């Protein structure tokens, strides 16, 4: 059996660039240009085209984004699709943090095959002046209302003017969904990246977690056993804590009882001391008065001196 003859590649289909450094700059298929580049070069609107504008954040660019841009591109046979991408400052202020920075998002969009032009740092609200400045005929976006400080739907005026083209969202895929997958399977991806040579500093995880992740994942049977052991340990710690609380309560009751007893004794001693002091003062006053009275009687009655001495001794 004869071998099949190798298919000859046409000369026009052979590699255009032998040098890898020129594969991007001299490629047959280039990425979509930025609006600023076209304006610097003085390139104006192509005649006979319908200019459609679509904007977004396009974080973690996925096929849901690509399908939305495909729908916008297919609205007209001669469609020239301009895609606006919001910058980091505006996005973080209104929507929150992003996974990709603005430069990465700009580049991701311009490499989509349906895009003809990319506008960097796109505004959040599309005004009439913006449409006129960029010669935009229609705006394509999904039909959900997007609010702002000025309006409940930033595309409302475009819908009223008949300049809005509604696109359909792709169910089951979104940037938030991708982030949720990573968060939900956090341990799996940590182990994956550690195995690929990333350090704990790269992954922002502690030494203890890296030590735990260094072990292979447990089997379902081992996971059940470990879960039972955890529950038993938690129950043991709970009982110990309950016993300590009860012991502490008993000691506290003893302290309170002792304090009440001591306080009552202190009060009684104070009252007793106060009563004895008053009695001593009264006795001293009585003795002093009796002495004075005796002296007076002695002087008046001219009693013997022995009598005075005897009374004074009292």
Write down the CATH class of the domain at 29-174.
Alpha Beta
Helix vs. strand class? alpha/beta
The SSE string, one letter per element, is HEHEHHEHEHEHHHHHH
**CATH-defined topology of the domain at 29-174:** Rossmann fold
User: Strand count, sense and closure of the main sheet?
Assistant: 5 strands, parallel
**How many DSSP H or I helices?**
12
What is the annotated CATH architecture of the domain at 29-174? 3-Layer(aba) Sandwich
CATH superfamily of the domain at 29-174: HUPs
Across the major sheet, the strand order is: 3-2-1-4-5
Number of strands: 5
Uncertain spans, ≥5 residues at pLDDT below 50? none
Nearest-angstrom radius of gyration? Answer: 48 Å
Principal-axes shape call: elongated
Strand content: 5-15%
Tell me the span between the first and last alpha carbons.
155 Å
Helix content: 40-55%
Overall residue-averaged pLDDT value: 80
Quick recap:
This is choline-phosphate cytidylyltransferase. It comes from Zophobas morio. Helices cover 53% and strands 9% of the residues.
Structure description:
- Helix content is 53%, strand content 9%.
- The model has no long low-confidence stretch (mean pLDDT 80).
- Strands 3-2-1-4-5 form a five-stranded parallel sheet.
- Among the domains are: 29-174, 3-Layer(aba) Sandwich (Rossmann fold); 185-213, no CATH class.
- Helix 2 links the parallel strand 1 and strand 2 (79-85).
- It has helices at 35-41, 63-73, 88-94, 102-110, 128-133, 156-160, 175-184, 186-195, 200-203, 207-213, 220-301, 305-313; strands at 50-56, 79-85, 117-120, 138-142, 164-167.
């Amino acid at each position: 059996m004869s071998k099949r003859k190798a298919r000859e590649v046409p000369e026009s289909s052979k590699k255009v660039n032998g040098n890898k450094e020129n594969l991007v700059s001299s490629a047959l298929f280039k990425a979509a240009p930025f609006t600023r580049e076209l304006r610097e070069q003085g390139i104006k609107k192509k005649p006979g085209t319908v200019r459609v504008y679509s904007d977004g954040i396009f974080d973690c660019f996925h096929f849901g984004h690509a399908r939305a841009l495909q729908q916008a591109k297919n609205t007209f046979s001669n469609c020239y699709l301009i895609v606006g991408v919001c910058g980091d400052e505006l996005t973080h202020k209104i929507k929150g943090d992003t996974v990709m920075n603005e430069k990465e998002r700009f580049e991701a969009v311009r490499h989509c095959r349906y895009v003809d032009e990319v506008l960097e740092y796109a505004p959040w609200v599309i005004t009439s002046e913006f449409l006129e400045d960029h010669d935009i005929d229609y705006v394509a976006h999904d039909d959900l209302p997007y609010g702002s400080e000025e309006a409940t739907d930033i595309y409302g005026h475009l819908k009223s003017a008949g300049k809005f083209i509604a696109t359909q969202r792709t169910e089951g895929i979104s940037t938030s969904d991708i982030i949720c997958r990573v968060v939900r399977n956090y341990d799996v991806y940590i182990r994956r990246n550690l195995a690929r040579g990333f350090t704990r500093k790269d992954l922002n995880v502690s030494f203890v977690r890296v030590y735990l992740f260094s072990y292979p994942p447990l089997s379902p049977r081992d996971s059940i056993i470990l879960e039972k052991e955890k529950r038993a340990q938690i129950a043991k710690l709970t009982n110990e804590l309950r016993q300590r609380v009860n012991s502490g309560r008993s000691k506290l009751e003893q302290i309170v009882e002792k304090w009440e007893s001591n306080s009552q004794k202190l009060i009684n001693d104070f009252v007793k001391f106060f009563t004895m002091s008053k009695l001593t003062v009264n006795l001293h006053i009585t003795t002093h008065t009796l002495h004075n009275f005796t002296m007076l009687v002695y002087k008046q009655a001219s009693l013997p001196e022995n009598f005075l001495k005897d009374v004074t001794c009292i």
